[in-house]
Amino acid sequence: MRSFLAGALCLSVLASAAPTLSVRDVPQTEFLNVTYSSSSGSLHNSSLPNVLILATGGTIAGSSTSSEDDTHYQAGVIGVAALVAAVPDLLNISNIDGVQFANKNSGDITSADVLQLSKLINYALCRSHSNYTGAVVTHGTDTLEETAFTLDITLSCSKPIVIVGAMRPATATSADGPGNLLEAVTVAVDPRAKGRGALIVLNDRIGQAWYTIKRNANTLETFGAPEQGFVGGLLSYTPFWYYPATRPTFKQTFKIAAINTLPAVEIIYAHESYNPKLIKDAISDGAQGIVIAGTGAGDESLAAEPYIAAAVAQGVPVVISTKINVGCVVPSAGSDTIAAGFLNPVKSRIQLQYALANNYSMNATRASFEQVLGSMIGYGASG
Fold first, then answer.
1. Nearest Cα to 187, choosing from 153, 234, 225, 147?
2. In the 3-class helix/strand/coil scheme, how is 265-302 assigned residue by residue?
3. Over the chain, what is the mean pLDDT?
4. What is the pLDDT of residue 32?
5. Pick from 132, 143, 340: nearest CA to 250
6. Which has more confidence, 47 or 21?
7. Mean pLDDT to the nearest integer, 200-214
């Protein structure tokens, strides 16, 4: 069994970023602002694949003054060079280029950040003559599923993106970050990871980003797809896969090359006696789309109906999801609202943003959510 304890504890005293090093593909790495590289000198191994790690902060880069503290630590403290240095086994399976894309709590990651992150990853992986086998994104777990979903629906090639985080900071006695990072890179270089889009790897499990959600606020066994399950896992840091690469049935993909900003889309959380005027207020404040985290299977209150109708009349799409986070909102013939299907509220918001950013019509936006599921259950959705 490998031990990562010493590496994890040393992270708190390592520098937050390394100076830029010379690398083999200067134009590519300069564009990416590579701040750590094992691709030159004695560390480079020409027989190994190349992986790009983009660090954004989060618990995996968190630090505390106590090794027993896994609740009141500071997220986004440790840099990508230190993360790699704490897991020397990484360099036995790949050459690493590291980019310090950000270093903050994932709650502070913005949609604009993730759009730029996706453009960088598409450039690094999908451009002609790219020398990267795959990319790994280290990320805080609070919004990890949102970033992973965005990367999944905007990836333009078959190379894998693996998103990884940790539930305990690097300074914790039983830090999970180093092991998770090793597993993430291991999956990124596995040829069988190709064609699966973005993958989430934590705690010996491999999940497809389209389906995977955060299910628990505290425990290590928190990410998963409650109904659809995992696509694979790792045993002794060796990936296994339950079935060949496949595309999720309801997945849509979106072009991002011409997108520079994303339209505002707000989520309205339904509950007993919630104020549906929030829908009108959100639109008045500039929202171009609304997602309602509905009760049950996306139920709407009678009080909300006139506000929803007014929004649709203004040309503002209203997507109905469910706050339960697991399950399906089924398309209904003749409905003015758009059914989210199996997408939870935060993923529905992201998909609606990218549909609007690509200037989809109301019908095309509806089709991106409803068409596949609708055809299965007997309701059409025009494109």
1. 234
2. EEEEECCCCCCCHHHHHHHHCCCCEEEEEEECCCECCC
3. 89
4. 84
5. 340
6. 47
7. 97
Which residue type, as a one-letter code, is found at position 146?
Answer: E
How much is the pLDDT for 164? 98
Q: Is 26 left (phi over 0), alpha (psi -120 to 50) or beta?
A: alpha
Find, among 77, 26, 82, 84, the residue nearest to 51 by Cα. 84
Q: Within a 10 A sphere around the Cβ of 318, how many other Cβ atoms?
A: 24
Separation of alpha carbons 118 and 197, rounded Å: 12
What is the share, in percent, of the chain residues with pLDDT greater than 90?
78
Sheet holding 289-294, edge to edge: 265-269, 289-294, 318-322, 338-339
Distance CA 81, CA 100 (A): 9
Q: What pLDDT is recorded for position 169? A: 87
Strand 95-104 versus strand 161-164 pairing type: unpaired
pLDDT of 16 strictly over 50: no
In the chain, what's the furthest Cα-to-Cα distance? 68
Question: According to CATH, what is the number of the domain 5-241?
Answer: 3.40.50.1170
pLDDT in tens, 89-131: 999 999 999 999 999 999 999 999 999 999 999 999 999 999 9
pLDDT tens across 244-281, in order? 999 999 999 999 999 999 999 999 999 999 999 999 99
Residue 64 C-beta-side C-alpha neighbours within 13 Å: 18
Phi, psi torsion values for 70, nearest 5 degrees: -125, 25
How many Å apart are CA 183 and CA 255, to the nearest integer? 30
Domain ranges of the chain: 5-241, 265-377
Q: Do the domains 265-377 and 5-241 match in fold? A: yes
- pLDDT computed for residue 10 by the predictor: 43
Which amino acids are annotated catalytic? 59
CA atoms within 13 A on the CB side of 83: 42
Q: Which residue has the higher pLDDT, 189 or 13?
A: 189
Length of the chain counted residue by residue: 383
Q: Is 251 exposed, middle or buried (0-12, 13-18, 19+ CB in 10 A)?
A: middle
Residue the block writes with tokens 């003015």: 336
CATH code 1.10.3720.10 for 265-377: no
